[in-house]
Specification:
Number of helices: 6
CATH class: Alpha Beta
Distance between the termini: 64 Å
Helix content: 10-25%
Number of domains: 1
Strand order of the largest sheet: 5-6-3-10-13-8
Order of helices and strands: EEEEEHHEEEEEEHEEEEEEHEEHH
Radius of gyration: 21 Å
Number of strands: 19
CATH architecture: 4-Layer Sandwich
Shape: globular
Largest sheet: 6 strands, antiparallel
CATH superfamily: Mitochondrial biogenesis AIM24
Strand content: 35-45%
Amino acid sequence: MQNHEIDYKIFGEEMQYVEVELDYNETAIAEPGAFMMMDDGIVMETMFGDGSAQQNSGGLLGKLLNAGKRVLVGENLFMTAFTNVNNGKRRVSFASPYPGKIIPLDLSRLNNNIICQKDAFLCAAKGVNIGIEFQRKLGTGLFGGEGFIMERLQGDGMAFLHACGHVLRKDLQPGELLKVDTGCIVGFSASVNYDIQFVGGIKNTIFGGEGLFFATLTGPGTVWIQTLPISRLAGRILQFGTTSRREEGSILGGIGNLLDGDGKW
């Protein structure tokens, strides 16, 4: 293996965290802000890019260009490395930033290549390359929900994604097609063909409430689907936080508010 080999355990249900076990001189990398806790004997270091062989090639200019690509996918220019400098095993933990699930990916069993939505990456073994994936089709880039740019994870080690809600894994057979809401895609293997399809129908377009396009994923390969995109959750919270409830102002509305914990009449 070219990437560091790490062991892990995932704890929790709705608000999960992953505990990574490091042997001497093993390193895990993570997004700034993902760190939760670590044992004594682990050294934390902020570095430019992800520290993979791909990003270390090409000298200083190559490092600048490769690390700068991360800005395009909404990630930080810097990452944090956690290295065990003591003999014996040490543990470091990383927490999911919102309710949902952490998805462990053994890239060596996934053809060393996974494409995922922006901001999905949580942490990985050192050596995993976190790059960008451009959507080559104009329609997919404009209407695919994730835009022209997604993340690409390459390597033969462990990587961890996070998603909102429950996560479903589906293994698609060659030619098998799955239609998905564009915001529900977490990631898919590089062998999967990603495109979009117009929903069609005047009533569906105007009154359907499901958007104008499906994402189409065609096998062979593996896809990961989330039940609650973070954008949908944020939209619901904003809706309830900025609008008045329909029953407010009526007698029954006031009683209902008291019953469900809202003391306003």
